[in-house]
Amino acid sequence: MAGKKITVEAGTAALKDLPAQLPTAVRFLLQKIEADHRGGTVELRVPPFGAVQCIEGMNHRRGTPPNVVEMTPEVFLGLCMGELSPEEAMTKPGCSFSGEKAELTFVVFPVAGL
User: Fold this and answer.
1) What are the pLDDT digits (tens) for 96-109?
2) Nearest residue to 44 via CA among 56, 35, 54
């Protein structure tokens, strides 16, 4: 994600106060996934808060990427908090997957390590 980085302290505080700080919490977790899973094979989108490119392999530069995972903020947070498995998340409304690499099993969702 381009722009100012969210500190661990600010991100952790946002995760503890989701009703008031949902955008910051989502952006912080996207930032962590981008750092932990560098690459450009999959675009992970959590509208309206952000999107990152991740996973090593081919790099996408222009237009709609061939591998896209899009999910609601609620599903994304459920994955990150360990409340949903990737398999459960893939069945939730508001989630879409396109491309052969568009899956959730590629990411170890980050909250447990914070």
Assistant:
1) 888 776 666 655 56
2) 54
